[in-house]
Design goal:
alpha+beta; 3 helices
Length: 138
């Protein structure tokens, strides 16, 4: 594995974690959306990551890619709100299956993973610069 492949690996991690943070932000923004174009309440989304295949990068361990954006299949919350326009005949409204605390924990985790990839990228950059300096001196 070349030193420059580290840049691609870290970049793929940055891209993946950025998508994860965007997805979490979208989940939080729709925490009270009871009506979607597909019908029914908003359904929480979660990105599914997979390792890049060697033929995609030409290197073993080529980073990460987004395989799919999945919908969380956990049940919707039933909230008693008889005045709500989407309430059923008993006065209950189906609310999205998004939990704010879980989303915030996921956001912290994604942020830390993003920071780790930035650190790895900066370390690889420093190593490449030092290797070039050794080449100049010799």
């Amino acid at each position: 594995m070349s030193i420059f492949s580290n840049f691609g690996i870290s970049a793929s991690g940055l891209t993946a974690q950025r998508l994860r943070m965007d997805t979490i932000a979208n989940n939080i923004a729709n925490i009270e959306t009871t009506r979607t174009p597909e019908g029914g309440p908003y359904q929480r989304q979660v990105p599914l990551f997979a390792s890049r295949e060697p033929q995609e990068t030409g290197q073993p361990g080529g980073g990460v890619r987004v395989q799919a954006l999945l919908r969380d299949q956990s049940p919707f919350k039933r909230v008693y709100e008889p005045g709500h326009p989407d309430a059923d005949e008993e006065g209950y409204v189906l609310m999205p299956n998004v939990e704010l605390v879980k989303e915030m924990v996921d956001m912290i985790d994604a942020s830390r993973a993003y920071e780790a990839n930035v650190t790895a990228l900066n370390t690889a950059k420093e190593m490449a610069q030092r290797a070039l300096e050794i080449g100049r001196r010799g």
